[in-house]
Amino acid sequence: MKKLILIALATLLLAGCYSTNDAKKALESQGFTDVKVTGHAWFACGKSDTFATSFEATNANGKRVSGAVCSGLFFKNATVRW
Fold first, then answer.
1. How far apart are CA 4 and CA 1, in angstroms?
2. Is residue 14's pLDDT more than 70?
3. Comparison of pLDDT for 22 and 2, the residue scoring more
4. Among candidates 58, 79, 69, 61, which has minimal Cα distance to 20?
5. What is the pLDDT of residues 59-76, one digit of tens each?
């Protein structure tokens, strides 16, 4: 029972590890518009990334795209992944 509670708690904590503002800034600086953050991007980023934020946006060609923005707490810029 304790393991189940720990797993549930860890899942809830990880689900909150995304950064809406950083993701929007990174995408808008690359020319994306109509950015919609859709939550945590499970398994989309590397071990050194603290935040994994999934998104949907319109690219410069007017097409709707989706992906993830990976970023860290200190000294790491955001990386957009498709």
1. 5
2. no
3. 22
4. 69
5. 999 999 999 999 887 767
Residue from 15, 37, 7, 11 nearest 24 by CA: 37
Are 23 and 53 contacting, i.e. CB atoms less than 8 angstroms apart?
Answer: yes
Residue 82's identity, in one-letter code, is W
Taking only Cα atoms into account, the Rg of the chain, rounded to an integer number of angstroms, comes to: 14
Q: What is the pLDDT of residues 25-49, one digit of tens each?
A: 999 999 999 999 999 898 999 888 8
Angle 82-77-40 from CA coordinates, rounded to 5°: 50
Count of beta carbons in the 10 Å neighbourhood of residue 71: 20
Q: How far apart are CA 68 and CA 82, in angstroms?
A: 6
DSSP letter (8 states) at residue 22: H
Residue ranges per domain, the chain?
Answer: 2-81
